[in-house]
Amino acid sequence: MATLYTKVKLYLEANSKTWDAEKNNIDLRNDGSGSYIKTWNVSGLTKPNDSKIAEYDSAGDTAETLHSVRKTRAREYPELKEQLDLLYKDLVAGKVDATGEWAKKIKKVKDDNPKS
Amino acid sequence: MSELKVNVISEVTGANGVVVDSVKLKDGGIVIADAGNIGSTSDVDAIAIGSDGDITLTQDLELQHDGAILSFGANDEVSLTHVHDTGLLLNSTNVIQFNDASQNIGAPSATVLDINATDEIELNATLVDINANVEISGTATTTGVHTFTAVPVFPNNTIETADIQADAITAAKIADNAVVTAGINADAVTGAKIADDAINSEHYTDGSIDTAHIADLQITSGKIAAGLLGGTIAFRAHSGSTQQAIDNATTTQVNLGTESFDIGGNFANSTFTVPSGGAGKYVLTCAARADASWAATDNLIVRMYVGANDDLGGGASNNIPAGHGGSANIQTIANLADGDTVKMYVYHDEGGSEQLQVGPANTFMSGVRVGA
């Protein structure tokens, strides 16, 4: 099940707000018995109750899966300097297209970690 | 023979003089010649009467009737009277003098007897038994030992410490609460007058012992209640073998399930609680280390909540590069009260629900009391 953070983030976005803009107005807390909203000071938006939070279970799961895929891809992508080196070599070889080494490495990471 | 009337019996020349069986004088008296005697057949000079009238007895004088009186003086002002089966009574306030007029025994009243001497009255015996109260207005000097069968009573402040031998008064000789401070002169009780172990907490009032009266190194740790000194309360606990997931952007209490040590037994359920009497200054340390699987993270924040209201005791943030398992830690000195709690929380904005590294060197909290 999605975390409280993810569902609150979606709740904010559904109401034309963003987590980054409001994170200092919200205090999510877990004292060992599960996460809860300890402080809610978002202007113009009421603190969501449990049922409202539950409405974002499914979307939250999807978002977290996507985050996990992105996180895995980010870890498996070659370092930036290595990618630049691959692109330079492909450019010199005239393979700045899907047949180049850079394109193939990136594609493999994406294929190994599909978003859905 | 009938009565013979003779005017004068004159001395005759003869060896035996005049011998008469008995003589009855009709008138006048008997006049004995100077240096003459009156006697019996066996003691012809039992009574001698001098020319000055002095009478000399060569044998006993017996006054054989009860109440016989010997009177002295021209007007009989001094007398000795026989008291039947008892003795002799010196009359009135007259005295019997010895050697000098100032040395005498007499009775100034019917109930008072005086023995007077100028320098000394000496009683020589193995025992002088006085069956009465005794008043001594002068100074008493005793060579031997005074043995009392009742408790002697001394006026306040009459016994000085100089008069008491060292260790002579033990606790067994003093009843509980028998000595009050009003009966002791300032500084009169010295250490030499107090036996070892004679004073316990019942015998001094709270606050009466200051540090000036405690010798160096005399107070051992066993005499100090738990928690009053630094180091008597200390703990260190860390995350157990199971990694704890920390949700993104959620301040989460860290599960510290394994104790390295817990001196005083005040750490439980990932929470340290200040015991009763343990209030004071504490050095507290918290550290958390991200798992190597974390993506690049702007903030890994370790927070310490202390006190009854979970006030923020301190926090530390660190930027975590992807795949490196960086850490953040905080150390602070907190002034804690009895019953206050200390808990460790972690916050991160890695984006997902991420885990902390376990083990005593990665994620832990420790604390030690350093003083009041």
How is this structure best described in words?
The complex is a heterodimer of chains A (116) and B (372). Chain A is mostly helical and 116 residues long. Chain A contains six helices and two strands. Chain A folds into two domains: 1-75, XkdW-like (Phenylalanyl-tRNA Synthetase, Chain B, domain 1); 77-116, no CATH class. Chain A is elongated and about 60 Å long. The mean pLDDT of chain A is 93. In chain B, strands 12, 14, 15, 17, 18 and 20 form a six-stranded antiparallel beta sheet that branches. Chain B has a five-stranded antiparallel beta sheet with strand order 13-10-22-16-19, with no helix packed on it. In chain B, strand 14 (267-268) and strand 15 form a beta hairpin. Chain B is rod-shaped, with a radius of gyration of 57 Å. The chains are: A mainly alpha (116), B mainly beta (372). Strand 1 (26-30) of chain A pairs parallel with strand 12 (250-253) of chain B, so a sheet runs across the interface.
Largest sheet of chain A: 2 strands, antiparallel
Low-confidence stretches of chain B: none
Helix content of chain A: 55-70%
Mean pLDDT of chain A: 93
Strand content of chain A: 5-15%
